[in-house]
Amino acid sequence: HASRAMTDVLFVTSEYDPYVIKQDSLASGLFPDIVKAAFHELNVDVKFEFQPWKRCEISIKEGRAYAAFPYLINKQRAAAFNFSAPVINFYPKFFYKKSNFPSGFEWSDLNDFKPYILGGVQGYWYKSSFQKAGLMTQYVTTDIQNINKLIRDRIDFTLIDELVGWDLLNDAYSGQVSDFAVAKKPESSDTFHLMISRKYPRAKELTSTFNKGLNLIKKNSEYQKILNKYKMSENYSVP
């Protein structure tokens, strides 16, 4: 079995529920499960190591690990790393309390948020567009702080990756999850990828193996099974 010669391809990642879940230093969650399944289709074994995000980038830059995940592609990263085919969609959405909007909330452009107070996180992608639209935004340093402010009615909305937002609510306020909703329309959309080392042995070959395996698990519905396991709606799956 020639492909067995590629012993345990090493990945580095950090905790990011539900994309990456860490339990007793074992990796599960959406991304590790998809990566494992895709490589398994072609008889390649993988192993995951947890490191802080900054460290992950150094490990792949130096070729000590094959790839890190989940990453969005941007100009700086594309200059230094290669990327896999898109693995999953990413949708940041506006979270709110149902009691404040009993008939729900729909929006078409950012001006619809003018009458309200938003909670943002310093350094996140949306700051300049919120400023341009003249939205009243209070900035904090973490998503969970905004969840706390939402609970206490200090803000009307906060914008978070939808899956991460529901996970934070489940962790911090499991009894009150049903008090919350998200506005259906995402603020933006993007795709998460593997961010791949240019120095790791046989990296190019491994990438085509992964992309091939990803296609196979989409065809045999293994991919959809993993999405269902983490209660992800259809619109997260990349066709």
Tell me what you see in this structure:
This protein is α/β, with parallel strands linked by helices and 239 residues long. It has helices at residues 30-41, 53-61, 75-80, 127-132, 143-151, 162-172, 203-219, 222-229, and strands spanning 9-13, 21-23, 26-28, 46-50, 67-71, 82-83, 88-90, 92-97, 117-121, 136-140, 157-161, 180-182, 190-196. Strands 1, 4, 5, 6, 7 and 13 form a six-stranded mixed sheet that branches. Strands 10-9-11-8-12 form a five-stranded mixed sheet. Residues 1-5 have low confidence and may be disordered. The two termini are 31 Å apart. It is built from eight helices and 13 strands.
Number of helices: 8
> Topology as H/E string?
EEEHEHEHEEEEHEHEHEEHH
The percent range for helix content is: 25-40%
Task: Report strand %.
Answer: 15-25%
Mean pLDDT: 92
Q: What would you call the structural class?
A: alpha/beta
What assembly state would you assign to the polypeptide chains in this entry? Answer: single chain
Distance between the termini: 31 Å
Radius of gyration: 19 Å
Q: Count of DSSP E strands?
A: 13
> Spans of 5+ residues with little confidence (pLDDT < 50)?
1-5
Instruction: Outline the biggest β-sheet.
Output: 6 strands, mixed
Approximate shape? elongated
Please describe the topology of this protein.
Layout: E1 9-13, E2 21-23, E3 26-28, H1 30-41, E4 46-50, H2 53-61, E5 67-71, H3 75-80, E6 82-83, E7 88-90, E8 92-97, E9 117-121, H4 127-132, E10 136-140, H5 143-151, E11 157-161, H6 162-172, E12 180-182, E13 190-196, H7 203-219, H8 222-229
Helix pairs in contact: 1-7, 1-8
